[in-house]
């Protein structure tokens, strides 16, 4: 500023002084660390298709957790210059660029959703959608499209599509290698229209014609079962952790409590997951204390979620799981098992334990980005490993006569194993608390003991 004072004393014209002030200020700013490089290397992106590209790039750079060991921050920074230097006529071009960027991560769960796809995803979690009724995933190694689970009562479920089926084709178009959003686009359509799904199962290929329908999901169903030993067991089936799951679960527990339930069987078989918060809310209805789930981010363990001391019941508990129990279902299962709150019965779970954060973007589109891994209370990494039940039991899937209505009945083998375990638990508890020598309780206790054998 000494230069300005000198020129002022020399009676330089005011307009010239004003210009000199501006250029000196600009020179000063350009000398600041990072100012010149950040401005010179970044094209103008506001109010252009590049704005969404840059927003996606920033989210990945800041929050992404690498699950494939291919992500490099150095390469990602180079990629930014490349994509922002290109010209894009409209959002269609920029969306293609975004998807190409994300493909370099080799993470099937980090994906871009255009405004239409984002709206459909919000419909999914709200409890109603149009399609055939399946949830899908991508095998990270083979790139196959895998059925996580069909939704009960939907066209896919009624047609016999099963968990772990590989979707090979959709209306003749090969599915392998496609992104999830593109597979969803081909499968979904207007109610009443048809779609042919090619399925690979046990090295056999079959084509299944389906009629699309509106899928209304009743998240929770429950009933009271009376055992042959006169014990009352509350059976609750959670089909999906939608926005309504916790509310419906609360209603079911309170109703069963009024009916005198002595123990609970929670059925998570075929439940593909859903909303993290819904599974935590349900866990808090069953757990009075302890950790429910923690997350491992790229920066370490954070965001430990705990029970809040507001459980609706403390009665004995068994949880039914199988290969179609995934994500949020595995969180609830792990919390029950690790806190010794109950027993797990069935088959090993799916093994999808990644946290995806949904980030809305400036133009109504969105990005689902992998930001962490789920860990059970004991620190078990759910992803790819799954959760092993305490009591392994085969299901009735090979029995063609087994119906949906058979779930939670004595025709349901896995349910029977869970029921027997709970009855034994209840009977032993009764023997310890109710046995009084030289009273009529003795005979009753002996009768129960004989039944257990």
What can you see in these coordinates?
By secondary structure, this protein is α+β, with helices and mostly antiparallel strands. It has four domains: 1-37, no CATH class; 41-105, no CATH class; 128-216, PDZ domain (Pdz3 Domain, Roll); 220-427, 2-enoyl-CoA Hydratase, Chain A, domain 1 (Alpha-Beta Complex), CATH 3.90.226. The chain contains 14 helices and 19 strands. The chain has helices at residues 2-9, 14-31, 35-40, 49-63, 73-85, 91-103, 115-126, 155-158, 180-187, 245-258, 276-286, 328-338, 413-434, 441-452, and strands at residues 111-113, 128-131, 134-138, 145-150, 166-170, 173-174, 194-201, 204-211, 213-216, 220-226, 232-238, 263-267, 291-297, 300-306, 317-321, 343-346, 354-360, 366-375, 391-392. Strands 3, 4, 5, 6, 7 and 8 form a six-stranded antiparallel β-sheet that branches. A hairpin with a 2-residue loop joins strand 7 (194-201) and strand 8 (204-211). Helix 10 packs parallel to helix 11 (276-286) and helix 13 packs antiparallel against helix 14 (441-452). The longest helix is centred in the C-terminal third of the chain and has 22 residues, at 413-434. The relative contact order is 0.09.
